[in-house]
Amino acid sequence: GMIRQLYNPSHPEHDALMGYQDAAIVMYVNVDLLPFLQVYHVDKFSHYVPLPVDTDKYAPPDLRMNDHPVFLCPTRHSWSEKGNDKLIAAFAEYTKRNRKAELRLCGWGGEDLQASKMMTYRYNLGKNVTWLPIMSKKKLITEYQRADVVFDQFVYEATGSSGPESMSCGAPLVSRITPEFFMRLHGSVPPILNAQEPEQIYEHMIRLEDEGLRKDLGEQGRKWVRQEQDIRVVAEKQRHLCQVVIDTFKEKRQT
Length: 255
Hints:
Layout: H1 16-22, E1 26-28, H2 34-39, E2 46-48, E3 70-73, H3 84-94, E4 102-106, H4 113-122, E5 129-132, H5 137-146, E6 149-151, H6 162-168, E7 173-175, H7 179-186, E8 193-194, H8 198-207, H9 211-228, H10 231-254
Parallel strand pairs: 1-2, 3-4, 3-6, 4-5, 6-7, 7-8
Helix pairs in contact: 3-8, 6-9
């Protein structure tokens, strides 16, 4: 994902472009990265391999039994890359509708963590926001399983790792995506509620009060991840790519 930032010559990792351009093969894991690879003329030897998800471990709970809406956003606080401020603004509006709603946020990481905390303070959300500590993946799975709805990011045109992980756990997902990118690389679009602005996020919060809709999206999302990003599916793609690397190396040695 770092390649999204490398157009800026003052970026501390700008020299990484030379690594991309000198590589025999580039593997990328986010569906929105192909246009960036085209800009830097490395798309012809780039291969898309999605992030793997162990769908046996990332599994739905037997039952979600919250007595109030529980929203989860496990992403780091970078407003320019994740749009955490948009989610907080939408949630502040939603608490006017449901004062018992809870938003569980990452309590560590990101240059805008303090700004996010100040924003929740200004909106008087102290009783509605839970700040989560650093945790293991095992604990994160329990958070996905507890959440009624998971929110990923609202800036880029593809989900990060939180997206497929939460869908595998049967949680409805709200995030910004560009469906065409998924169609091009997967042949289908994951059942994600698309949102980019606070108003859209708020509207989805209201829509997802429907338990039947949450259940349907959760089941469809898990099915999609099992078909497209299960660890066994991705492992086969990686095995194929390793063979391509070996074959390319052999060809170069022969010339």
